[in-house]
Amino acid sequence: MPSPTAPQDPDPGGVLRRVGDRRLPLDHKRGPGRRITATPNPVPVIPQGILAGFNARILNPDTAYLAPGQPVPSMTLYAANTLLVRGLPGIGNAAQPLIDEIAEVAKTLGYAVRVSPIDEARAVQAVALAERGSRGWLDVLNRVSVTQIGFERDSGGVQRVADAWVILQELIVHQNSIGTLGFGEHPAGVSLDHLMTTCGDFEPGRHWDAVGQYGSVGQYGSVGQYGSVGQYGSVGQYGSVGQYGSVGAADIYGVPGFGGRTPLVWRADNPRDHVTLPKRPPVVALVDTQVGPHPWFAGAHAPTEITLGPGREPSDELRDELNGLLAPEAGHGTFIAGIIRQICPQAHLLVVPVIPFAGAAAEKDIHDALLLLIERQRAALAPGGDASLLVDVVNLSLGYYHERPEDAVVQDGPIRALIQELIDLGVVVVAAAGNAGTRARFYPAAFAPSEHRLVSVGALNPSGTSVALFSNHGDWVEEHRVAASVVSTVPTSMVGNAQASIEKKRTDPLPRGTIDPDDYSPGFAAWSGTSFAAPVLAAEITLGLLALEDEEPGLLQSTDPDTVRRRSDKAVTWARERDDLARARTKDP
Fold it and tell me: What SS3 string covers 222-278?
């Protein structure tokens, strides 16, 4: 194999240099590549514990290791020791030639490649089906699935921890050197394994915000419980900087009482107790955290849950082990489920729990969840298929910022192919626009403008007349729904170790005290985030399906592929037109 350090294309500026057995940018502060001129991705401020849990890194454009001709990337989060390769592994399958090539490059760097045993097992099963005459699933998997490959140190090689970004750049140099990749191009079929985060978090210091749970130091303010000077903030009325937040005005949405997650009591019946269910209720799939215990989701009202398999379920622990504080996204999936239950109580919920309550998940786990839904929908649409397997809407209250958001690389990404497959099968995908208050594209929501059955949703304030400050914005955000200070369900088991600020032990007849800030045992809360805008639209689409069923009885039971696509298109149009006024008043200038 030609040396990956000697690409055929010239490096006229000498932008790469050798340090030991590594090649580094000469101007490491600016980077050697072309600058991307689009809105920069927001800077992630994510707890080290979450990064360590996923073996993840932040790709920094100022220090990124680059192959000659490659553009300076935008900031993103990615798994440090894995890459995703399009297709299945194994002889004759789509991913294997590229896996072999990556293994050859990795070997020169002192790493051995390991293929995910889960993907190997999936390939064996698909090949076995093909050999029995059912080749369709094998073809689908080779087209839209990905194989996760990891990197381990060779026993006699280097002792540096693997960095998937560096290995990807070395692959580019190698392909340049043998003439299979043009100068400045990106190799097809291989990508980073991004870290995807939920869109329901405004606690500063989580994902893309400031520091601490609600303020710069301490639980709610800069010093002490609620603020270093005064009752709630060190400077200004409620926050250490700005009017309400420790950094920036949008942080107000993370303060309890101003949009942050807050316990509430809601004296209302289960909406499902007062409706008649159709023969086949419309189905909304939630790729999210687990849905926890709550009277609204008990007994006959319980969601259906499907998992990625033994050992792959996210932890159901709502609290951190050391201090007993609630996890950042504790209750996220349950909250989304409650929004759908309020708007369309007839809808059935199909839960695919893949996100831990920390609020982040590996992109590969999201891929595998979408594959489960694709497999289910294909089975439903097959001749003689079972209508009870149909999925009508998928809610994705999560996403990531891609390192090359403005070019064809992101469009060729594996999650785009999976969503396209779902869309082609007649499933509507609703994606949250993200909470960074930026025009930077948040995926998969940013794919939406090209597809009728893929809809991106931003957040409005409670009045419905203004966009929430935290909501991402741009021509790729198609719809907006109220998602600030929303009331919905949370698990009744959701109780943390934070205490009331004042408590007096008495026996006449009860103790006295202030509100316990993390006792959610009543089962309801207020919260904010585009995570909670997406399920509003998802539920409205199911209302559209029910309206179509009223016009054409039996429509929802059809498993004819053309009929499924037709009714999905009509339901999306119905939901989009339901709030034309809101869309007009939030149009991007």
Answer: CCCCCCCCCCCCCCCCCCCCCCCCCCCHHHHHHCECCCECEEECCCCCCHHHHCCCC
